[in-house]
Design goal:
- Helix content is about 70%, strand content about 0%.
- It is mainly alpha-helical and about 230 residues long.
- The model is unreliable at about 1-10 and about 110-145 (pLDDT under 50).
Length: about 230
């Protein structure tokens, strides 16, 4: 890695870590835009996998962002005591639960749809976490934060969140050609022969590109885990 690339990576990581501090200033529009762009997909996917509809998930994301903005002035980034990951999980769970409570109001349309769906489910039961297309669930189906179901969803999506962020950083550290090789072979599952023939490179170049970028990815993910874990 060149000095310029190394400096860029360190500056990017420092910006990532300092973002939470910057957000204590509600007027920092640039900081809040960066926060939204970094985390909205994570929040949305967790909400959807928890059983919310698309509209409910969008509301949950907006409400979570608003809650973060309200509580951020009192938040102190102390990973040894309380990780940002755990804190954001707590806020997200609360907003998802709020959506289920709204749905669970007596006489609500979503509640009636759920009741009808339950009649067509063997045994009338099912997982607390259902497909977003399987029909609305009710608030009593959402477990506590410690429940392995919600935590498993969160951890899976958090890993994807870190991987995506790390991948964006790695793009800046390698040539376009190397990343294209990695993308086709590692991300799109093209065979070595297909990549070599299409891009007119040798098999050795394909193996080396995958090896190098995989190592860089692991390094960037570890950095993010330290910054956001």
């Amino acid at each position: 890695m060149t000095n310029g690339m190394r400096h860029g990576a360190e500056e990017w990581l420092a910006t990532r870590r300092s973002l939470l501090t910057r957000l204590r200033d509600a007027g920092d529009q640039t900081g809040w835009q960066q926060f939204f762009e970094a985390y909205w997909k994570l929040l949305y996917r967790v909400a959807r996998k928890s059983g919310l509809t698309e509209a409910e998930a969008q509301d949950a994301v907006q409400e979570t962002i608003i809650t973060v903005s309200q509580q951020m002035p009192e938040f102190r980034y102390e990973p040894a005591r309380c990780s940002f990951k755990g804190w954001l999980l707590l806020l997200t769970r609360q907003r998802i639960a709020h959506q289920f409570r709204k749905r669970n109001k007596p006489g609500g349309d979503a509640n009636r749809v759920h009741a009808a769906a339950a009649q067509h489910t063997p045994g009338g039961g099912g997982s607390a976490f259902v497909s977003a297309d399987a029909g609305p669930a009710t608030v009593d189906q959402l477990p506590d934060v410690s429940d392995t179901g919600l935590e498993a969803i969160w951890n899976e999506e958090w890993r994807q969140h870190l991987y995506s962020a790390a991948l964006e950083q790695v793009k800046r550290q390698v040539s376009d050609r190397q990343f294209q090789i990695f993308d086709l072979h590692a991300l799109q599952n093209w065979s070595v022969r297909e990549v070599a023939r299409t891009l007119r490179v040798s098999a050795v170049q394909v193996y080396l590109a995958r090896h190098r970028i995989s190592l860089l990815l692991k390094k960037e993910v570890r950095k993010l885990e330290q910054a956001e874990g």
